[in-house]
Amino acid sequence: MTSICVLGLGYIGLPTAALLASRGNRVYGVDVRPEIVETVSAGRVHISEVDLDGVVQKVVNAGMLTAHQTPSPADAFIITAPTPLTEDRRPQLECVYAAANSIAPVLKRGDLVIVESTCPVGTTRNVAQLLAAARPDLAIAGGGAAISDISVAYCPERVLPGRILIELIDNDRCVGGLTPVCTERAAQLYESFVHGTVLRTDAATAELVKLTENAFRDVNIAFANELSMVAEHHGVDVWKVIELANRHPRVNILNPGPGVGGHCIAVDPWFIVDSAPQQAKLIRAAREVNDSKADYVFQRLAQTMESSPEPNVTCFGLAFKPNVDDLRESPALAIVERLGRAFPGRVAAVEPFIQTQPASLKAAGVPLITLDEGLDRLGAFVLLVDHTAFLRVPRERLRGRKIIDTRGVWARA
Ligand code: SAJ
Q1: How far is the CA of 208 from the centre of ligand 1 (A)?
Q2: How do residues 128-177 score in pLDDT, each as one tens digit?
Q3: What pLDDT score was predicted for residue 310?
Q4: CATH code for the domain of 324
Q5: Average pLDDT, whole number, for the chain?
């Protein structure tokens, strides 16, 4: 049995901790927020993710996962602290460095430290230097010693919210250590529970791989979003264009939408732009296109509402993507808020994944109503998120409606 300390019990840390505990490891989950420690200690979860509640309850009851505010000594430490953006779009690494500082006092010879948080290139080396400064009695990897006491590696998470427990096991992982020994030790830890292939590289490459994955997706979504605006300019149906173009064997265009949300794809490409501004011209432009799409959708809706005889508009979907309750950086939510403020008393929202009206919608005077109430409401319909529940709406309930469909599922039904 290995003892593992997971630092940061968020969207990635808690599922990782629970999974490692379910595989027979003794796991110490650490979070700086006492309410999270309390919730997990009681065998409950503070985030909604498919099947996570059952696994957490089981491993906590079995005594394999315990939650704490400070780290305990362990064989391996996995840092899954958040790395948000500052106002001026620079990576904020304080939480990762604070987590590294917090483990320094409990480190002992032979331990393995892994960073999983999304980070700019060079962060893993910085973590090692910070540990070396805090613990001059230990030879930390990357410091030049022939044999190091502490191995340090980077292994980015790459799971899709809504499929986290499945993808933690099934996806290939990319592991990069500061030395080949670090890489090997970290790879062996992941090979103990990952069914996908664990790919070995160095730390800086692994750091850039993570950023590359999300920037690749952002650029491709930006292409689809830009195309949707070009097609509208020409009075052509973008969904038809994409359907036909995708019949080419080497073309695979993604789906346009109201913009890109979530805490990953809308954020991580800025880490690349920040570190290589002269080189990352396309990646920056893609971010700007995707950010501008929400504004474009709002302007189109505002024009429709100003010129339309329809008094009301009902917006379907607030989440940042289908079939999740996550409102983080959601373009749909931002559009509904703006509409509510611009057209007081005329806008209502349907979001089957949440029960409580978000404070920002309350402030904007937008009520949260049920799907049935929304479909019965007079006026136009705006589809912002392609939740399965919306795709299943009987077509007769949409007949005769003015529909503004940012996801291309109702308008083409
Ligand atoms: N979106 C579109 N059109 C598309 C696909 C997505 O508009 O064709 C929008 C979604 O509506 C959403 C946003 O993009 O607003 C991002 O959604 P997503 O499902 O593409 O990705 P995330 O943010 O949930 O998760 C991503 C994943 N990265 C990649 O697919 C390369 C996931 O594997 C990462 O682990 C995660 O970021 C992360 O944590 O970095």
Answers
A1: 17
A2: 999 999 999 999 999 888 899 999 999 999 999 889 999 999 999 999 99
A3: 64
A4: 3.40.50.720
A5: 96
Give CA–CA dist 93/8, Å, rounded: 13
Looking at the structure, do residues 163 and 219 belong to the same domain, yes or no?
Answer: no
Cut 0.85: pTM above it: yes
What percentage of the chain's residues is helix, strand, coil (to nearest 5)? 45, 15, 45
Question: Strand, helix or coil at 114?
Answer: strand
Mark whether 258 and 357 lie in a shared domain.
yes
Distance CA 88, CA 209 (A): 24
The closest of 369, 368, 258, 374 to 321, measured between CA atoms, is: 258
In a domain, 362, yes or no: yes
Looking at the DSSP bridge assignments, the partners of residue 405 are 383
Q: Per-residue pLDDT for 270 more than 70?
A: yes
pLDDT tens by residue, 285-341: 999 999 999 999 999 999 988 887 668 999 999 999 999 889 999 999 999 999 999
CB proximity list for 332: less than 8 A, separation 6 or greater? 258, 261, 315, 317, 318, 319, 320, 384, 385
Please tell me whether residues 376 and 350 are part of one structural domain.
yes
For residues 180 and 301, membership in a common domain is answered with no
Range(s) of the domain holding residue 326: 213-405
- Asked if 409 and 392 count as a contact pair (C-beta separation under 8 A), the reply is no
> Which range is least confidently modeled, 182-186, 207-211, 260-264, 330-334?
260-264
Is 208 inside a domain boundary? Answer: no
131 three-state secondary structure:
helix
Q: Evaluate whether residue 169 is within a structural domain.
A: yes
Q: Which residue has the tokens 């630092």?
A: 7
Please name which of 19, 16, 125, 1 lies closest in space to residue 75, comparing C-alpha atoms: 1
Task: Select from 321, 353, 409 the residue to mutate for testing ligand 1; criterion: most ligand atoms less than 8 Å from CB.
Answer: 321
Catalytic residues: 210, 264
Q: Which residues pair with 352 in a beta bridge?
A: none
Can you tell me which atom of ligand 1 is nearest the CA of 12?
A: 39
Q: Is residue 189 part of a domain?
A: yes
User: What is the reported pLDDT for 311?
Assistant: 80
| Residues within 6 Å of ligand 1 by CB | 118, 157-161, 213-214, 217, 221, 254-255, 257, 260-262, 264-265, 320-321
Q: Which mutation among 174, 260, 325 tests ligand 1's pocket best, with the greatest number of atoms within 8 A of CB?
A: 260
